[in-house]
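dumping this here so i dont lose it again. seq + smiles for adenosine-5'-triphosphate
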Amino acid sequence: MDSTISSSASLSIPKFRCFDPTYAYSPTTANHRRSFSNFSPTFKSSSRVNMVDFENYERKIVTGDAGYVLEDVPHLSDYIPDLPIVVHKDSPRGTHFRRAGPRQRVYFESNEVYACIVTCGGLCPGLNTVIREIVCGLHYMYGVNNVLGIEGGYRGFYARNTIPLTPKVVNDIHKRGGTILGTSRGGHDTSKIVDSIQDRGINQVYIIGGDGTQKGASVIFEEIRRRGLKVAVAGIPKTIDNDIPVIDKSFGFDTAVEEAQRAINAAHVESESFDNCIGVVKLMGRYSGFIAMYATLASRDVDCCLIPESPFYLEGPGGLFEFIEKRLNEQGHMVIVIAEGAGQDLLNECMRTMDQQDASGNKLLQDVGLWISQKIKEHFAKRPKMPINLKYIDPTYMIRAIPSNASDNVYCTLLAHSAIHGAMAGYTGFTVGPVNGRHAYIPFHRVTERQNKVVITDRMWARLLSSTNQPSFLDQKDISRSKTEEVSETPLLSAENHAQEIATK
Ligand SMILES: Nc1ncnc2c1ncn2[C@@H]1O[C@H](COP(=O)(O)OP(=O)(O)OP(=O)(O)O)[C@@H](O)[C@H]1O
Ligand SMILES: O=P(O)(O)OC[C@H]1O[C@](O)(CO)[C@@H](O)[C@@H]1O
Ligand SMILES: [Mg+2]
């Protein structure tokens, strides 16, 4: 164990050891050396096969420095000399990220750490859980007692108070929605923020927030590096919209989808109870329709789901009105789920409004739920033989202001622990998150360079279409365009499907 590890850390680390040596394999034959040469950063020159067990063909154990052990499986070439390789593919293996978890080398003394936590952007279920687990994780795993909460988002570094955070202070906060630290949009002044970090002697910065927040974290990290400070900057990605790329999903998303069920259910009960009744539910999702898509798939009561990624039209053959009429004739009621960012082009055409932005530069949207409800009512007002009833439900803020559910709580804990282990081990400028099921350290630029969106030519959207039986609103031209965009927007998607393994060091 590294001498810099504090006594409390060395006691706790083995409990949490996450050791997957798959790619830390030490090649012992020419064949192996060739196939694993891509992973040379983790090649352990002093590793050795335990020959006694190996010769008995019972176990094949590779040992190396600092207790490194690989229990490998037998290979034909172990007992058939000069076994020819028939195919040796040298195709790219995809992008790999460093796997998250505790490390043998720790770069901070417990009593030297002065950590701070900040939450930025919109609310999201689980924010308090992440705060709690960072405070408790630092304390119980590494013996750290100095953690500061920055109030009110980024501007809190230079314009607001701070709160000392201890395990006692945060003990029950995971049961509450929101964030005990408060949050905000806008107010990112890099030099003032880094001045504040430097003046206070903070050396670990934990930043919880969405895509905008991670961009902010990235420039803070760059400025810290420029000043040569020993300050680790770790991002924890948050958003109910699930629009952060690379990671499997963001925390709070599951909870939001679950809560959305209550609104959809209410819309269904209402619509079933009246003649020709339409329940319209508006859900969040500014640029990405994941909440609407998953809430629809989970519910099975939704007849039509409209998201920003899938353009639609109202009038004429194949349009929304035609579909509504058909559904009402078939079953006498229907439920429409619409993501807040859907149909904004139609709305803008109608309303001729100027583009507006919030303090962080995000597009301020027109209320598409109210608009579409009005349009449906106007359309059927012209059809006296088909009077309709319409109930509009807008649960948008309700789905993000609640505490996280059980699975998000567990997820938040893993994210917090990954961030702590990374910072204590001296890594910086990273976001934590699962990539194909493995928690990893991801460089900031990878999560800020694009947004995660529903790919409407992909399987999940096809599943939704077959579940609701709604029109796709697409013609051949749209499909080709969407395919081209998919390729240019997500150039590394297929590579990321392999990005599950990271060297342990
Ligand atoms: N490009 C950027 N550079 C520096 N700071 C940024 C940048 N974009 C956003 N920020 C800052 O990050 C913070 C949060 O951004 P934003 O309001 O967009 O929310 P978010 O983190 O994307 O979360 P969400 O959209 O899920 O609510 C704000 O304080 C904003 O000033
Ligand atoms: O009204 P606010 O706080 O700006 O937040 C609204 C936005 O926040 C989000 O929930 C993302 O956090 C979006 O879905 C939504 O557009
Ligand atoms: Mg955002």
